[in-house]
Design a protein that fits this description.
Layout lengths: L2 H18 L8 H8 L2 H4 L2 H4 L2 E2 L10 E5 L12 E6 L5 E10 H5 L11 H25 L2 E9 L7 E8 L2 E8 L3 E7 L2 H4 L26 E2 L7 E2 L14 H12 L6 H7 L13 H11 L2 E5 L4 H9 L4 E6 L2 H15 L11 H4 L9 E10 L4 E5 L9 E4 H7 E8 L1
Antiparallel strand pairs: 1-2, 2-3, 3-4, 4-8, 5-6, 6-7, 7-8, 9-10, 10-13, 11-16, 12-13, 12-16, 13-14, 14-15
Length: 412
Amino acid sequence: MPHASRRSLLLSWLAMWCITSHPALGLDSPAFERALGTPDVWKMPDFIRLWVRDPADANAPVSRAALGDEVEIFGIRPDAIAARFLPTAEVHSVTVVVLDAGNFFGFGNSNVQGESFEAARVRFDNEFALRKQRLQDGLRKMGMQPQGEVMLGERGGLRLRTQLWMGAGGIARVLSKEKQLLQVDFFRNEAEARSLLARSAGASATPGARPSALGNMTPRPASDAQPESRIPGVPMLPQGNRGYCGVAILAMIGHHFGLTCSVEELAVVNGFTYGAESNPDIREMFGQIAREAGIKAQRSPRFDIHLMKRTIDSGMPVVVFRRWSQERDYLHSAYSARIARGEKAELPVAGSEDRKSWPGKDAPAHASIINGYRDDRREVIFTESWGPQARNRRMRYEELEGTSYYVVYFSK
């Protein structure tokens, strides 16, 4: 098809969305489905405006932006639709979470209260089979056929088993894991579908090359010119009402290093079944993610302030596993919000009275990303996987020393 005719057709699809889109009804499904298999559409401003991007993620090697409207795909109302963006504002790929057990069951099975767990499992399995058939039928209708297995993440040991679909209708990758996840990703080309490493369209495709954005990962002073060191925004991937704290932090670190693996995919790798962990220790996977990205990971059972500062100063984040309590979380949240508003505030001195309220060894485990520090106040700056409001929170060095039990320091 001549370039002018093809562009005219693509513009007509975009026009169809504008005409038929309605806040209550969502986008036009057939047009959106066709666009998923036509990467030329992804370059157009009208397509890019469909996605809700977090400005704090603008310079991230890979960031995820949710679709700003609702749309059915192949007659399915998916759990989520998101685009992966590169720092160049290119859409690298589009991911459709067709069915996720974490979302289906909810944190602590909170979404299936009122029915037995066995009944909920049967309902999930039936829905999984139905959606899988509709997905396969839909991909074939688009003009794609299965092309065999693609094993992702072999360099780092992640070994994520997927299936490649290709044809006149585009390029897609399907992850089908019974009892946990059905997901399809659409790509610009076959090479990107076969890799977890993201690159801009003009970047070198040398096997094993690190993302070029890693060279620019350097800390910078905070915008308010306070004497603190802070890494530019680590990509936010909210865990939602799911028991995905650890894998969400893992995916955020992966995106920061230029990997495209989603929270849901990493839950599969970590052995989640029906939305719950079967392998409760995710710590080894941080080393796997680092190897996949060509990064080094040093693991330690203790928090070292000096090593943390050197790591941040080199432009790399730190992951800390710590004990958590609602009381201390409220204190950190309130204090961090006041600092963000430019108000004068101080955390309690880490004396004997304050230490009494720190969470002990029996408190729930939690993972956070340290993305900065302020030395004159002896504060770490950390980010949670709870959404944009959970960026750049603060606690004293002493509290993190006293409540952490495992730390991962990254280096180039």
